[in-house]
TrEMBL record:
It is an enzyme of class 2 (transferase). This is Glucose-1-phosphate adenylyltransferase. Pfam families: LbH_GLGC, NTP_transferase. GO terms for molecular function: glucose-1-phosphate adenylyltransferase activity. InterPro entries: ADP-Glc_PPase, ADP_Glu_pyroP_CS, NTP_transferase_dom, Nucleotide-diphossugar_trans, Trimer_LpxA-like_sf. Its EC number is 2.7.7.27. Residues 7-270 form the Nucleotidyl transferase domain. Belongs to the bacterial/plant glucose-1-phosphate adenylyltransferase family.
């Protein structure tokens, strides 16, 4: 079956709900699982699905994202594949920046004219899942779809936080409600598998993954269908175009908040995580050529390590440890994500810091860190205690912030020896 597709990954907006991780980077550039970036997930899903014409649309805090994509994704000269960046731009026809997800694609359509494609796959840059898009494309083509939306069955308590689609027995979407009230949910049940029905997952939530037939999307834009896919394009397409629901049965989570980001990372430490890093479908990222991690005298349980770490901690439990992390002796890390560092300190600097009582990059001696996220390049002194939990009020505190009881130490923050948080 012909699948002449171009894939578009949306770089996202300001990402305020992921602050402070998005203070100096866009959401898709946020490090995940110790060695990847969020944008690696949709790009890898595309490549594993045989789709190698990929554009990433960027706007806010895009420097690190642009650098990561430039350094990560290279195709040989005999391949027609590419992962290119389309940055938001002002021009004589349009002086405004992107006004929404659909507007970002609309403004980029002129750049797509040089490519040969029949279908457009629209993806978010801040979700965690593994999907073979070929199956969704085949579903779209076989059923004569104009628009196909990937949906996932959810329970009633989650349904009020999503855009909920109601479909008939043939997969045609008949109605759409953005974050519906609880008291109207009974009327929004769709046909799902017996297993999902038994679990109470009878509501179809939009995953923010769309396939459009090229001519249809072009017509929608010409007709002024709106600036946002979820709020404008999708609701307006129902009844006017053949709009289909493609039900996805696997694991999927939207990395929209600090809490969801934290939980998704720590789930990777479980014996059977919901997101399988060890599958036959690899997650691609930048090859850094780092040495293997070195662990000395530490008790380790349910932990994931990146490359190039030097670990002398007493205990690391249920935690993700990112590339180039240094943890000194006597320290304990529990239920935390330590993102690591972008570079190694040289020996001279380390000796000078020790002599002058300044923290080195990484985590010092006899620290205790629990329920925390440490962004990259943090300098944590000796005897530092960070204990997250619901007892801590949400807020921004200079070197760190607290959201939902999770302490987030900011990128490059310095916590002097003896600092206590929590």
């Amino acid at each position: 079956m012909k699948r002449n597709v171009i894939s578009i990954v949306l770089g996202g907006g300001r990402g305020t709900r992921l602050f402070p991780l998005t203070y100096s980077r866009s959401k898709p550039a946020v490090p995940i699982a110790g060695k990847y970036r969020l944008v690696d997930i949709p790009i890898s899903n595309c490549l594993n699905s045989g789709l190698n014409k990929i554009l990433v649309l960027t706007q806010f805090n895009s420097a690190s994202l642009n650098s990561h994509i430039k350094n990560s994704y290279h195709f040989d000269i005999f391949s027609k594949g590419f992962v290119d960046i389309l940055a938001a731009e002002q021009n004589v026809e349009n002086e405004s920046w992107y006004q929404g997800t659909a507007d970002a694609v609309r403004q980029s359509m002129k750049h797509l004219e040089k490519y040969d494609y029949d279908y457009i796959l629209i993806l978010s840059g801040d979700q965690l899942y593994q999907m073979d898009f070929r199956e969704m494309l085949d579903f779209h083509i076989e059923n004569g779809g104009d628009v196909t939306i990937a949906t996932i069955p959810v329970v009633a308590k989650d349904a009020t936080g999503f855009g909920i689609l109601k479909s008939d027995d043939d997969g045609n979407i008949t109605s759409f409600y953005e974050k519906p009230e609880y008291d109207i949910l009974d009327s929004l049940k769709s046909e799902v598998s017996e297993e999902n029905k038994h679990k109470g997952k009878e509501y179809l939530a939009s995953m923010g993954i769309y396939i459009f037939t090229r001519t249809i999307l072009k017509k929608m834009f010409e007709d002024g269908a709106g600036d946002d896919f979820g709020k404008d394009i999708i609701p307006n397409s129902i009844g006017k175009y053949k709009t289909l629901s493609y039900q996805y049965e696997g694991y999927w989570t939207d990395i929209g908040t600090i809490e969801s980001f934290y939980e998704a990372n720590l789930d990777l430490c479980q014996d059977l995580p919901q997101f399988n890093l060890f599958s036959s479908s690899p997650i691609y990222t930048r090859a850094r050529m780092l040495p293997p991690s070195k662990i000395n005298g530490s008790y380790v349980s349910k932990a994931v390590f990146g490359d190039g770490c030097i670990i002398m901690a007493d205990k690391i439990e249920n935690s993700v440890i990112g590339n180039r992390t240094r943890i000194d002796k006597g320290s304990t890390i529990v239920n935390s994500y330590v993102m690591g560092a972008d570079f190694y300190q040289n020996t001279t600097e380390i000796v000078l810091n020790d002599r002058n009582g300044r923290p080195n990059m990484g985590i010092g001696k006899y620290c205790y860190i629990e329920k925390a996220i440490l962004d990259k390049n943090c300098y944590i002194g000796d005897n530092v205690k960070i204990i997250g939990g619901k007892h801590l009020p949400d807020g921004d505190y200079g070197t760190h912030s607290v959201q939902d009881g999770i302490v987030v130490v900011k990128k490059g923050a310095v916590l002097p020896s003896g600092t206590h948080i929590g």
